[in-house]
């Protein structure tokens, strides 16, 4: 006996992965845009900007991976 079909399991994982990656991408993109007004010479602000850029890249990789898995890209 299975708890769910293979197709349902695939879509549940797609929703979880795509949803998390999409939310991560949006959150870090908003934070990155807001951090533009920070002082350029401040090392803490630079570290935050770098972290937000890494978060955006991770979000893009997740979203693109889900879209490629389903043959959209």
The biggest sheet, with number of strands, parallel, antiparallel or mixed sense and barrel status, is: none
The structure class reads mainly alpha
Task: Return residue spans where pLDDT drops below 50 for at least 5 consecutive residues.
Answer: none
| End-to-end distance | 35 Å
Any idea what the radius of gyration is? 17 Å
- Count every beta strand, where a strand is a DSSP E run of 2 or more residues: 0
Number of helices: 2
Helix percentage: over 70%
Shape: elongated
- Total domain modules: 1
Q: What fraction strand?
A: under 5%
How much is the average pLDDT? 93
The ordered string of helix (H) and strand (E) elements is HH
Describe the structure.
This protein is mainly α and 73 residues long. It has one domain. Helices cover 77% and strands 0% of the residues. The chain has two helices and no strands. Helix 1 packs antiparallel against helix 2 (43-69). The protein is elongated and about 60 Å long. The protein starts with 5 loop residues before the first helix and ends with a helix. 3% of the residues are buried.
In a nutshell, what does this entry contain?
With 73 residues, the chain is mainly alpha-helical.
């Amino acid at each position: 006996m299975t708890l769910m079909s293979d197709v349902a399991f695939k879509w549940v994982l797609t929703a979880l992965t795509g949803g998390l990656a999409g939310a991560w991408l949006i959150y870090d993109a908003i934070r990155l845009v807001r951090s533009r007004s920070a002082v350029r010479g401040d090392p803490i602000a630079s570290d935050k900007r770098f972290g937000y850029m890494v978060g955006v890249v991770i979000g893009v990789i997740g979203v693109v991976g889900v879209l490629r898995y389903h043959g959209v890209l």
